[in-house]
Write a sequence for this structure.
């Protein structure tokens, strides 16, 4: 396991709000924490789902990047004008209220963001796009859900190929390859792409699998698959994405606090 440097960039991971046996918890999956620390060389900091009470600008002053994680919950359809969810759908309004304004503010301020699974869906909604709530029920679309009849770790094995957009950022990270294999563990996906985004990759059924924020002043990438899992972190593209994110947050850290780091290192 690699060590985080003595003065690492700081990456915030917005938490989900979950109900435990007796009370609510703010939580982030350990795989995301490990991927930020080891893949991006940054210090992961968990951000509670404080919603409208969160001082977003004050928080962004203290961060060098943000990773928006996957989650069992879905963005509430009222956030993008969609129909009511199917009965039993898990939602997290506290997370929605925290992440959607945070994404918009981070992009505007040039804070690097990396959005994974629910994160790419939040990114699309935050910028005005819509979602398919049940992709497997959309005519012509594949079933992108994970298999529940195999052990958990095996669900993160490569499932299908994605086509990488010519001249795109993700294709460059893939060394110019036209395709890559990814895992698939989601029921929702992008329907109408937000005007501020450009598609970077797509599944065989045309579902958008990666996006980039157009004209963003810093790293701003979203992917529908899970590059953070230990299985996927063995793939060159996963490592390249986290390394690129790590460079972006390190550059912001160097601009944001060079004097403090120099003084502390003496």
């Amino acid at each position: 396991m690699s060590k985080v440097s003595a003065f690492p960039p700081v990456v915030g991971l917005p938490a989900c709000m979950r109900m435990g046996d007796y009370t609510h918890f703010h939580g982030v999956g350990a795989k995301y924490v490990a991927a930020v620390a080891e893949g991006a060389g940054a210090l992961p900091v968990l951000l509670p789902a404080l919603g409208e009470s969160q001082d977003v600008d004050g928080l962004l002053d203290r961060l060098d990047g943000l990773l928006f994680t996957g989650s069992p919950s879905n963005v509430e359809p009222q956030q993008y004008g969609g129909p009511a969810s199917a009965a039993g759908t898990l939602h997290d309004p506290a997370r929605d209220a925290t992440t959607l304004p945070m994404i918009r503010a981070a992009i505007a301020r040039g804070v690097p963001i990396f959005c994974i699974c629910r994160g790419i869906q939040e990114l699309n909604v935050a910028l005005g796009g819509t979602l398919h709530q049940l992709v497997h029920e959309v005519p012509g679309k594949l079933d992108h859900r994970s298999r529940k009849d195999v052990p958990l770790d095996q669900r993160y094995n490569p499932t299908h190929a994605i086509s990488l957009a010519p001249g795109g950022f993700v294709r460059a990270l893939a060394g110019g390859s036209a395709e890559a294999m990814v895992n698939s563990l989601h029921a929702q996906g992008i329907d109408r792409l937000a005007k501020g985004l450009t598609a970077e990759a797509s599944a065989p059924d045309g579902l958008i699998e990666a996006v980039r924020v157009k004209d963003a002043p810093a790293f701003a990438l979203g992917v529908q698959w899970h590059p953070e899992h230990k299985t996927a972190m063995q793939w060159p593209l996963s490592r390249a994405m986290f390394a690129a994110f790590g460079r972006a947050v390190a550059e912001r850290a160097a601009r944001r606090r060079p004097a403090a780091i120099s003084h502390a290192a003496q």
Summary: The chain has seven helices and 13 strands. The longest helix spans residues 236-256. The first strand starts at residue 10 and ends at 14. The mean pLDDT is 94.
